[in-house]
Amino acid sequence: MPNKLLHDLRRLAVSEIGAVIAMGVIALGAFSFIELTDEIFEGDTHTFDQSLLLALREPGDTANPIGPYWLEYAMADITALGGYAVLTLLVAGVFFYLLSAGKRGTALLLVGAVISGAVMVSLLKLGFDRPRPDLVSHLSHAQSSSFPSGHATVSAIAYLTLGVILARAHERRRVKILVMTYAVILTVLIGASRVYLGVHWPTDVLAGWALGAGWAALWWLIAWWLQRRGQIEQP
């Protein structure tokens, strides 16, 4: 009995700390996105954006990215992990898995986070209507406006949310850290690939990361609140 009580108290403490961290991520993400938006549309980031894009291309040849030939193909594969087709298949698979495991509430929250995030990005793109980079050749298909990066935002929402779901299913802290670290690495690589391939300004991706991380944290906070009220299953 004492061991169970200590275990429950430990889980409660971790949960409370997690909620505080989530609120911090939400606040930091919102602040970073707003500040970046202000700087971008005042033109203060133009030099940074141009310099970084050109630094990723061979001098005098803006159609040729730096690095070995295989790196371009690897980046094209990585960027596909943030595409809507791959994310739809991944989220759908996890959704049906969670349903079959009796975690209907978690499944609905996952889909809600990703779909609402995708809608939000589409609306922001229409509102800001920032042109894609014309400084270097595009090495990947890109059709919509540039800001914020849809790949960076939605992949951050999807992979960080999936990471949290997997981490919550394990008691060992080492496993939780490993899962979340991998989710962050995937998110960073996908966003970086968009800049390397020349289809986004670097600040599009930075804003997407900030927005996506904040959105994922917001939905984690919603899940935490619903669990406290007994309206969603415990991990």
General description of the model:
The structure is a single chain. This protein has 235 residues and is an all-alpha fold. It has one domain (2-228). Helices cover 74% and strands 3% of the residues. It has eight helices and two strands. The chain has helices spanning 2-41, 46-55, 69-80, 84-100, 104-128, 150-168, 173-196, 202-228, and strands at residues 57-58, 61-65. Strands 1-2 form a two-stranded antiparallel ribbon. The longest helix has 40 residues, at 2-41. It is globular. Mean pLDDT is 89; it is low at 3-10.
Q: How is this fold's topology laid out?
A:
Layout: H1 2-41, H2 46-55, E1 57-58, E2 61-65, H3 69-80, H4 84-100, H5 104-128, H6 150-168, H7 173-196, H8 202-228
Antiparallel strand pairs: 1-2
Helix pairs in contact: 1-8, 3-7, 4-5, 4-6, 5-6, 5-8, 6-7, 6-8, 7-8
Overall, the morphology is globular
Task: Indicate the percent of residues in helices.
Answer: over 70%
Low-confidence stretches: 3-10
The number of domains is: 1
Tally of contiguous helical segments: 8
Q: Topology as H/E string?
A: HHEEHHHHHH
How many strand units? 2
Structural class: mainly alpha
Strand arrangement in the largest pleated sheet = 1-2
Whole-number mean pLDDT: 89
The major sheet is characterized as: 2 strands, antiparallel
Question: What proportion of the residues form beta strands (DSSP E)?
Answer: under 5%
Spatial extent as radius of gyration: 19 Å
Distance from N terminus to C terminus (CA atoms, Å) equals: 21 Å
